Amino acid sequence: MTEISLFSAFVMGLIGSGHCLVMCGGIASSLQLAQTKQSPFVTALLYNLGRLGSYMVAGALVAGLGAAFAKQSTLFANILNVLSGVFMLLVGIYVMRLAATLNWLEKAGKWLLWQRLVQLNKYLLPIDSKVKALAYGALWGWLPCGLVYSALTWSLQASSSLSGALTMAAFALGTFPAMLAVGQTAQLLNTFLNHKATRIALGNIFIWYGFYLLIIATDKLVH
């Protein structure tokens, strides 16, 4: 795992955080159920740390699986590289909202996992302690999200479980600025990130990076 790869994952989380605000906007209201003696910022921070923890677990599991198969087949490793490029293209289109290219993936995640996990919500509300805030974030870290699943394709081709976990940690940290913003700052950031021009600009970054990954992956397949 190189520093460039970790930085790329961080940037992916940063420029995709507008989507995070849309997906997780309703959670902000749930966090308001915390007792007034508990700082809203601390609650939000713990929630996001819990989310980061879940991302790291998912990254470690996926990377471990991918590394095991990649060791058996060079072709499989190259296919994973192609898959990463394809998903970057899908994310770009998704962020620009030109087409619901990742909805099928989110629906699959909801059917396979989320409809069962979400039932644990009742044990965590109201969020009246730091432990509950952390656990709530860890639970919602498994919310079906096309952007997260796309980041996991990078973890899938990581060399080890640790590398996969670090990739997803970098991605999660990229979403922190938007997710931790409060009040007027959050409103302004949400407006900016979800403005049509911003979405098109950020979506193009994903698309061009996707083409870059595909060129590299194709070259490896040919040679």
TL;DR of this structure?
The protein has helices spanning 3-15, 17-31, 40-72, 74-95, 103-117, 130-140, 146-156, 161-180, 183-193, 196-222. It is mainly alpha-helical and 223 residues long. It has one domain.
Task: Provide the number of structural domains.
Answer: 1
**Which strand-content bin applies to the residues?**
under 5%
Rg calc = 18 Å
| Mean residue pLDDT | 82
Number of DSSP helices?
A: 10
Helix content: over 70%
Largest sheet at a glance? none
Distance between the termini: 23 Å
Overall structural class, as computed from helix and strand content, comes to mainly alpha
Transmembrane segments: 6-31, 52-70, 76-100, 133-152, 164-189, 201-218
Domain Urease accessory protein UreH-like transmembrane: 9-212
Protein name: Cytochrome biogenesis protein
InterPro entries: UreH-like_TM_dom
Question: Can you walk through the features of this model?
Answer:
This protein is mainly alpha-helical. It has one domain (3-218). Helices cover 80% and strands 0% of the residues. The chain has helices spanning 3-15, 17-31, 40-72, 74-95, 103-117, 130-140, 146-156, 161-180, 183-193, 196-222. Helix 4 (74-95) runs antiparallel to helix 7 (146-156), helix 4 (74-95) packs antiparallel against helix 10 (196-222) and helix 7 runs antiparallel to helix 8 (161-180). It is globular and about 60 Å long. The mean pLDDT is 82. This is Cytochrome biogenesis protein.
SSE inventory with pairings:
Blueprint: H1 3-15, H2 17-31, H3 40-72, H4 74-95, H5 103-117, H6 130-140, H7 146-156, H8 161-180, H9 183-193, H10 196-222
Pfam families: DsbD_2
Protein name: Cytochrome biogenesis protein
Domain Urease accessory protein UreH-like transmembrane: 9-212
